[in-house]
Structure formats: structure tokens, C-alpha cells
Specification:
Elements (H helix, E strand, L loop, with lengths): L16 H12 L3 H7 L7 E2 H7 L5 H13 L3 E10 L2 E10 L1 H10 L5 H25 L4 H14 L1
Antiparallel strand pairs: 1-3, 2-3
Helix pairs in contact: 5-6
Length: about 160
């Protein structure tokens, strides 16, 4: 890659300016959200107490706030599950990455498997093409024009 050439990242971002601002603030205002996302590099689901324990140098309230922001920006999804530990049962929250969250992880933690990268590329391509078709339609660009551009791009490869 040449020195002035951009990195080949496509970011799928919300249309609303306020939502876009929220995503950028969530991910880049502090290192903690990206550290939380990186916890998922080899895990599908992580329980809330485990996440809080990993960040014990920070207050529980601030970690819970970051988790809430990551869910609101659709980087993480959450659910609740009944866990049985020894003689006790209790409900606990879990978190896992959304498709956008997995993509964020792949950008900042390139140690993901080849199969995961292939799936991400397919998923992101589908999301991207769908959005481009919608936006193009809003500006009167016909699908045949987009198809011609796509065919020309394929010829260059």
C-alpha cells in the first residue's frame, strides 16, 4: 500500500447525525469501550460480572454506563440468563457482539480467524450494497447504472 493511500476500511454508520455522534463518542472518547469490545476476541458471550471484574480499577457505575452505550449504539447486544452456581441460582446479564461489533473488533483486534473475516466481509458487503442502493434511489440513480459501475470495478480487479 502506498504511503498516501487510505486503509481499506468501510464503516457502517448510522444515518442520524445524533446517532453518529453517539457512536463516535462511545468508541473513541475513552479506551474502555474498545477494551470491552476486545474482550470478545475469543468469546461469543460474556457475563456482566466478568466484565466488571476485568475493569476493577474503574467504578462499576462507569463500566455499566459504557456497556449501556455499547448496547445503545448496537455494537453489543444484551440478554439475561439464569445461572446456577453451586447451590444458588441467579439471573445475570450477558453481552455479545452484533455484526457491527464484530467488525469493530476486527479493525482494532486483527487476531480473529479467517472464517470470521470471510463472514464479516460477506455480511458487510450485503449491508453496504443495500444501503448504497437505497441512497442511490433517493437521488434518482438507477440500478442499471450501479450495476454498470460494479461491473467496471470487477474488470479492474
Amino acid at each position: 500500500m502506498e504511503e498516501n493511500e487510505g486503509w481499506p476500511y468501510v464503516l457502517i454508520l448510522p444515518e442520524s447525525k445524533s446517532e453518529l455522534k453517539k457512536v463516535f463518542n462511545t468508541l473513541f472518547k475513552s479506551n474502555i469501550p474498545l477494551e470491552i469490545v476486545s474482550l470478545f476476541h475469543d468469546r461469543e458471550k460474556i457475563y456482566q460480572p466478568e466484565i466488571i471484574k476485568k475493569f476493577k480499577r474503574h467504578s462499576n457505575k462507569s463500566i455499566l454506563n459504557y456497556l449501556k452505550q455499547l448496547v445503545e449504539t448496537k455494537i453489543l447486544e444484551t440478554g439475561i440468563e439464569k445461572i446456577r452456581k453451586e447451590q444458588r441460582s441467579f439471573w445475570t446479564k450477558w453481552y455479545k457482539l452484533t455484526s457491527i461489533g464484530r467488525y469493530v473488533l476486527s479493525i482494532f483486534n486483527p487476531k480473529i480467524g479467517e472464517e470470521e473475516v470471510k463472514n464479516l466481509i460477506k455480511e458487510l458487503f450485503s449491508i453496504y450494497v443495500t444501503k448504497v442502493i437505497k441512497i442511490a434511489g433517493n437521488y434518482g440513480i438507477k440500478l442499471t447504472e450501479l450495476n454498470t459501475l460494479f461491473q467496471k470495478a470487477l474488470e479492474k480487479v
